[in-house]
Specification:
- It is built from 7 helices and 6 strands; from the N terminus they run βαβαβααβαββαα.
- It is α/β, with parallel strands linked by helices and 182 residues long.
- It has a 6-stranded parallel β-sheet, sandwiched between helices.
- The chain has helices spanning 16-26, 52-62, 74-78, 84-91, 116-122, 150-155, 167-177; strands at 3-9, 33-38, 69-71, 97-103, 123-128, 140-141.
- The model has no long low-confidence stretch (mean pLDDT 93).
């Protein structure tokens, strides 16, 4: 297995959109394995909602039966904000080619990413459409049609938008801790 797709993010909470992305990546013939890498704390955020250990636990449960999908705790174990370039360089010790999966909402700030010029030489970007944002032809596109965001789910969690494997547990955590409406 030489070629991976790196799907990083906060996964705070993980939702059916994340699951749809992984299913689409599994069908991408060039990719041997999908590595899901939750952040300890996203470099562009000042806090997380669910603790990293809980998010890892949920992801492991959600993707336990998926073939060629691995949950990496690399960033979580650093117990700090980790830039994407650092994670990519860590993975390049074990893999030859990395496809980096990002949401289209990241396109406007890519140049602000730590060592972006170096990063774009090391990976091939796969962009998931979001909010009708234009995706340049310089990027590969992964069509997934789930209009959902973790931010909106934290505001008012909907159990139908959560992966079935641990939907009740995720729902209860966010409902008890963060949901703004009844």
């Amino acid at each position: 297995m030489d070629t991976i797709a790196l799907f990083g993010g906060s996964f705070d909470p993980p939702h059916i959109g994340h699951e749809a992305i992984v299913k689409a990546l599994i069908n991408f013939k060039e990719i041997d394995k999908v590595i899901i890498m939750p952040t300890f704390l996203n470099p562009f955020k000042s806090k997380f909602y669910a603790p990293a250990s809980l998010r890892v636990e949920w992801l492991k449960e959600i993707f336990a039966e998926y073939k060629n999908v691995e949950i990496s705790e690399y960033e979580v174990l650093q117990k700090r904000q980790v830039s994407t370039i650092e994670s990519v360089k860590h993975l390049l010790k074990s893999y030859k080619k990395i496809y980096l999966v990002i949401g289209a909402d990241n396109l406007s700030c890519l140049e602000k990413w730590d060592r972006y010029d170096e990063l774009k030489e090391l990976v091939t970007f796969i962009v998931v459409p979001r909010d009708n944002i234009e995706i340049s032809e310089q990027f590969l596109r992964l069509d997934v049609d789930e209009k959902i965001s973790s931010t909106k789910l934290r505001e008012c969690v909907e159990i139908s938008k959560l992966p079935k494997k641990c939907a009740k547990e995720i729902y209860n955590f966010y409902k008890e801790n963060y949901c703004k409406t009844e």
